[in-house]
Amino acid sequence: MTDSTAAAAPPKHDRFVSYVHDLCQDNRTRAELRRGLGLPVERCNYMHRYLVPWLHQHDDVSYPDTRRAYYGVASLIAARPRVARQTEPTDTSATAWYRRPNLGSVLGEAVKRDVMKPGTAESALHLMSRQGSDAVHRTLPSLSRQLLRGGMTVDWAVLVKDLSWWTQDRDAIATRWLDQYFRLSIPTGVTDTITLPEEN
Q1: pLDDT tens digits along 137-148
Q2: Start-to-end CA span in the chain (Å)
Q3: Fewest CB within a 10 Å sphere: which of 2, 74, 143, 153?
């Protein structure tokens, strides 16, 4: 039995990421997309000319979270630090959706590589798991900047999909993020030494 979030990644999300990467080859366009960092769609006036035509040809953006996810991820891609822009994005479109790295996977790998402290990464995940879409979008710019500067790779297509469904399926998505985080960040056997608090 599989849930809806484990289905194959819709090709449209990968096509969108490729489209934004192409847009970002132009410095002015990249700067205009970057102006939408953490902002609601209604305040992203400079992004509409680039994203509205693509979205209306490829996806139903009548649901606000879907459109917000596309705009949010486009601005995150545009805001990548120079070191990340010089690296060719990894093509994971042929990989089964459930095997592709979500945000929890990236944070877990960041802890393993000492890019982030365990407490910082885990706190960020727990905080986002309790937040609504707006708060998560405001959190992502600084978090993704730290990850990218540390040489981490974010699967932007997976992030678009997760953010699109955040309001409707937050608990399931947050659980997947936490599951992948702990699989990667805690070495096998470490939990044997952890003392759990006694229940009252």
Answers
A1: 999 999 999 999
A2: 36
A3: 2
